[in-house]
Specification:
Low-confidence stretches: none
Shape: globular
Mean pLDDT: 91
CATH superfamily of the largest domain: NAD(P)-binding Rossmann-like Domain
Strand order of the largest sheet: 3-2-1-4-5-6-7
Helix content: 25-40%
Largest sheet: 7 strands, mixed
Number of domains: 2
Number of strands: 7
Structural class: alpha/beta
Oligomer: single chain
Strand content: 15-25%
CATH architecture of the largest domain: 3-Layer(aba) Sandwich
């Protein structure tokens, strides 16, 4: 199975590493963002070292061309701040899913861990849902909660859930 990962953040590294370790046939599409240029060389080197196909975006439309050219069986979006037109990503046999670092529907949108921590939630959640054109609104296919501990902070919990 060919698994496509779409991200514009270094948060994708643990997922890439795990999928690569189980020989999942993983490939990374790394999109542009204000911070992406900071990580692109590091991610390219990581992918080269681990024999993971890597593509760094120059223009937004490239995502749709990348998908048509590589024909991944499934796509996971993680740590991606760019809006994606789901209709343009047609023909992904097993679907397109977003890994959302928050409980849905309560914590739709950006920085859900920040809001869960700020609101003092007893449990912190992560959700995988089908990608739709409406932000964080697709059908939930998997969710997991962990107990919120006093020592958790935003950076730590992002690392735990990555």
């Amino acid at each position: 199975m060919k698994m496509g990962i779409v991200s514009n953040s270094k948060i994708c590294i643990p997922l890439l590493s795990h999928l690569n370790s189980i020989k999942a046939g993983v490939m990374l599409y790394f999109g542009k963002s204000p911070d992406a240029d900071i990580y692109v060389n590091d991610l390219a080197a990581f992918c080269r070292m681990n024999h993971i196909q890597f593509h760094a975006e120059d223009e937004k439309k490239e995502l749709y061309n990348w998908q048509q050219l590589n024909e991944p069986d499934i796509i996971f979006i993680t740590g991606c701040s760019n809006k994606i037109d789901v209709k343009e990503l047609s023909g992904v046999p097993k679907g397109i899913y977003n890994i959302h670092f928050g409980k849905l529907p309560q914590y739709r949108g950006p920085s859900p861990f920040f809001w869960q921590l700020k609101n003092g939630e007893a449990k912190l959640g992560i959700t995988i849902h089908q990608l739709t054109n409406r932000l964080d609104s697709g059908a939930v296919v998997w969710a997991q909660d962990i107990k919120n501990e006093e020592f958790y902070n935003y950076n730590y919990i992002n690392q735990v859930f990555s």
